[in-house]
Amino acid sequence: MTYPIIEEDGFKYIEAGTGETLVLLHGLMGELSNWELVIEQFKDRYRVIIPILPIYDLPILTLGVKALSRYLHRFLKYKNLNQVVLVGNSLGGHVGLVFTVAHQEFVKALVLTGSSGLYENAFGGSFPRRESYDYIKEKVEFTFYDPATATKELVDDVFKTVNDRSRVIRILTMAKSAIRHNMSKDLSKITIPVSLIWGKNDKVTPPEVAEEFHQLLPNSELNWVEKCGHAPMMEHPQVFNAYLEKFLDRILLK
């Protein structure tokens, strides 16, 4: 990642650009670098901020989607941010949904890509063969339509993370929290504009999940990314950015 991580008052984040604020929320196993091409595309016209969600820092007894939503609330208040556009991938989308239900006055619009919150087919309840590099490689490749997107660097990072006992316990705790926290009954409360940008070949949160989100979110649009898995901003960044730009132009420049 070419952008320095800012650390202040217990928060860690990346920030670039000026203008209307986009807050990018990473997934459970997501790296900040997942968003690098989004930052590059939008930093000339927008203020782009990526908070590091404290999955490995919060007390494990309170760790969950709601705890991350509360952290996001503290962060936005600390940065004196209001009427932001939240853009979330996977768990980050779920956090964005929980936060928006509780604090819709902070959010101008919401963008979800491969979001959990209804159903996800992730690693499951355990990593039965986490010591096997080939097994972890296969699991990371499962995330994408094109297995080549799972670079050695990415697989190495995930392998290192899941073989850290403290981290893997937190990952499993977080994953179970996300599965338990189903959003279907709350989505009708979100009346701000929502853009769903979804991989047509997503095996983690399959296309029917996007269609259900679209049905339950009253002010939503659904955009498909062909030949794409769970992380469109990584696998097809140009297509993802084009959809995002069109959405931002519609909601911010009207």
UniProtKB/TrEMBL annotation:
The keyword Membrane does not apply. Keywords: Hydrolase. Transmembrane segments: none annotated. Pfam families: Abhydrolase_1. One of its GO terms (molecular function) is hydrolase activity. Residues 21-237 form the AB hydrolase-1 domain. GO terms for cellular component: membrane. This is Alpha/beta hydrolase.
